[in-house]
């Protein structure tokens, strides 16, 4: 029995725990949900609810107004927001592994920002501090989120451009940032990590200056590292 319960935990078959909260960290029933929302006490991920304001949505919701913001302006606006939040999270709280923003329209998902830190302690620190802060004239609501695997939480149809449920889909519609920004935010850190790693190795290697050999070794030890991890 215990095994059975463990195997269905957080799935649709689980009559006790809410599968949506478990996978997506948000459920449309909110506190009125008939199933349990098990709020994590530790997590790498912080959710800031309803933070991102999509200018296209606000324009559409004003009656009689047609939306005349171009897709390019939209992307610029979004990239600026993303960069600002991402940079601030890293400067104030610690290294960010991944950040995602929901493009959904349902109340429980609209504008949600999920920041997955490298360390749980940084996430904890961020939640405590963020709940005393304001963004765009609104108090921030931040909480630790059970979501760590965004592949499970996001809508795959949205990614291929064909979600029939549109903005009211209950899986995350994660709005992509531009390639340039992605390279700038994630690429730079990957490089600096690589640099740090090769520095460590260089200081331990005796035959400095024999770069070709060194590079060869580096590749080999990287392969070793890889195979050791699995
Ligand atoms: Zn629920
Ligand atoms: Zn969808």
From TrEMBL:
Domain RRM: 65-147
Keyword Acetylation: no
UniProt subcellular location: Nucleus
Compositionally skewed regions (Basic and acidic residues) per UniProt: 197-215
Keywords: Metal-binding, mRNA processing, mRNA splicing, Nucleus, Repeat, RNA-binding, Zinc, Zinc-finger
Pfam families, per the entry: RRM_1 (PF00076), zf-CCCH (PF00642)
ZnF C3H1-type: positions: 12-40, 149-176
Keyword Ribosomal protein assigned: no
Annotated GO MF terms: RNA binding; zinc ion binding
InterPro entries the record matches: Nucleotide-bd_a/b_plait_sf, RBD_domain_sf, RRM_dom, RRM_euk-type, U2AF_small, Znf_CCCH
Bias (Basic residues) ranges: 185-196
Gene3D superfamilies documented for this protein: 3.30.70.330
Every C3H1-type domain range: 12-40, 149-176
Cellular component per GO, a single term: U2AF complex
One GO process term, biological-process aspect: mRNA splicing, via spliceosome
Main location: nucleus
Residue segments, region Disordered: 182-230
Family classification: Belongs to the splicing factor SR family.
Name of protein: Uncharacterized protein
Protein source organism: Oryzias javanicus (Javanese ricefish)
Source species taxonomy: Eukaryota, Metazoa, Chordata, Craniata, Vertebrata
């Amino acid at each position: 029995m215990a095994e059975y319960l463990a195997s269905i935990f957080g799935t649709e078959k689980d009559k006790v725990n809410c599968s949506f909260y478990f996978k997506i960290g948000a459920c449309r029933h909110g506190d009125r949900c008939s199933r349990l929302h098990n709020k994590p006490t530790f997590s790498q991920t912080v959710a800031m609810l309803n933070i991102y304001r999509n200018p296209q949505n606000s324009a559409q919701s004003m009656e009689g107004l047609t939306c005349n913001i171009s897709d390019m302006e939209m992307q610029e606006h979004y990239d600026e927001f993303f960069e600002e939040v991402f940079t601030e999270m890293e400067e104030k709280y610690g290294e960010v592994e991944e950040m995602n923003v929901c493009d959904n329209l349902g109340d429980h998902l609209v504008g949600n920002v999920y920041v997955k830190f490298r360390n749980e302690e940084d996430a904890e620190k961020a939640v405590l501090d963020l709940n005393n802060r304001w963004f765009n004239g609104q108090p921030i609501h931040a909480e630790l989120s059970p979501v760590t695997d965004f592949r499970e939480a996001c809508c795959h149809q949205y990614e291929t451009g064909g979600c029939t449920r549109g903005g009211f889909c209950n899986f995350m519609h994660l709005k992509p940032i531009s390639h340039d920004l992605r390279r700038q935010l994630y690429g730079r850190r990957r490089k600096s990590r690589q640099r740090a790693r090769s520095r460590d190795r260089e200081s331990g290697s005796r035959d400095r200056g024999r770069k070709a050999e060194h590079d060869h070794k580096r590749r080999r030890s990287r392969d070793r590292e890889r195979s050791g991890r699995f």
